Automatic annotation (TrEMBL):
The entry's keywords: Membrane, Transmembrane, Transmembrane helix
Pfam families, sorted: DUF420 (PF04238)
InterPro entries: DUF420
Organism (species): Haloplanus vescus
Key word Cell membrane present: no
Transmembrane annotation, as ranges: 44-67, 79-96, 116-140, 161-183
Taxonomic lineage from the root: Archaea, Methanobacteriati, Methanobacteriota, Stenosarchaea group, Halobacteria
Protein name: Putative membrane protein
Top-level division of the source organism's lineage: Archaea
Length: 184
């Protein structure tokens, strides 16, 4: 059997591995000593770089959706692959910073923390977690089949859901950034 015949299984394995890595980093299971340390200025720039990456990803995802709706599947594929690369870049940078420094603490007032920041952060995290298997699934379908064969799969249906959730997650990530680094 090849990858084409094992998309659900590969989706599950990749999702579990990815989420284990993310939660392991966030919960402190990855030892700081095994990570090379960049200069403090580089680490401090990561949230700002990631905000730009998120904003660009919103544009590439929206473009990819528009290309698919117009039947421009070559451009759709390029936009979505770029979106996946941007997501991977965001995640690598985020996890690097989290392993070195831990999650960012909210510097604003407690009322804003409880009533605004935490709900937005919770929805952002939930959507990001839900997106992982959806994204793996549509990417695996797309990379194991010719474009014409995707009509016989759930690629378009799952892709619409994945893209919608992905857009909201990236947007909320930018809101979290603004709350952490611009407003407070």
């Amino acid at each position: 059997m090849n990858a084409r015949d094992r998309v659900p299984e590969l989706t599950a394995v990749l999702s579990i591995a990815s989420l284990a890595l993310v939660f392991g980093a966030v919960l402190g299971a990855v030892p700081r000593a095994v990570i090379p340390h960049a200069p403090a200025g580089v680490v401090a720039a990561i949230p700002h770089v990631n905000a730009v990456v998120s904003t660009v990803a919103i544009g590439t995802i929206a473009s990819g959706v528009a290309f698919a709706r117009r039947g421009e599947f070559g451009r759709h594929r390029a936009a979505m692959v770029l979106s996946a690369v941007l997501f991977a870049l965001f995640l690598v940078l985020y996890l690097y910073k989290v392993v070195l420094e831990g999650p960012a603490t909210f510097p604003g007032p407690d009322a804003v923390y409880r009533q605004v920041y935490l709900p937005i952060l919770a929805i952002h995290i939930l959507l990001a977690v839900v997106c992982i298997p959806l994204l793996y699934y549509v990417l695996l379908l797309a990379t194991t089949r010719p474009v014409g064969a995707l009509r016989d799969t759930a690629h378009a249906r799952v892709g619409r859901v994945a893209a919608s959730l992905w857009l909201v997650s990236f947007f909320l990530g930018d809101v979290v950034y603004a709350l952490l680094y611009l407003l407070y």
